Amino acid sequence: MVARAQPLTGLKETSALVHEALRAARIERESGRRLARLGGGEPDMEAPAAKAEVGVTLGVSLDLAN
Predict the structure, then answer these.
(1) Residues 6, 12: contact at Cβ < 8 Å?
(2) Is the pTM of this model over 0.90?
(3) Which of 17, 29, 49, 59 would disulfide-bridge 11, Cβ 3.0–4.6 Å?
(4) DSSP 3-state assignment of 63?
(5) Are 16 and 28 in contact (CB under 8 A)?
(6) Residue 10: phi, psi to the nearest 5?
(7) How far apart are CA 28 and CA 21, in angstroms?
């Protein structure tokens, strides 16, 4: 998985790659907590139009699960 992530991120050192992965996970977790705190405060709000995914736009697969 590290070998596949290195060219996508441009990070060569494993420790730097792991650090960035942990940082991204922390940001995602904190964002989820903030969203949960909103608790549906805008029930009449409409969702914005969907945008193209970054990976699709760049022609790059960002799936690191495999």
Answers:
(1) yes
(2) no
(3) 17
(4) coil
(5) no
(6) 80, 5
(7) 11
**Averaged in consecutive runs of 10 residues, what is the pLDDT profile of the chain (66 residues)?**
88 91 92 84 74 55 55
How far apart are the C-alpha atoms of 40 and 48, rounded to whole Å? 16
Distance CA 42, CA 23 (A): 29
Both tokens of residue 33?
């907590």
> What is the residue extent of each domain of the chain?
1-38
Contact in structure between 62 and 9 (CB atoms under 8 Å): no
Other Cβ atoms closer than 10 A to 59: 6
Reduce the secondary structure of 1-61 to three states and give it as a string.
CHHHHHHHHCCCCHHHHHHHHHHHHHHHHHHHHHHHHHCCCCCCCCCCCCCCCHHHHHCCC
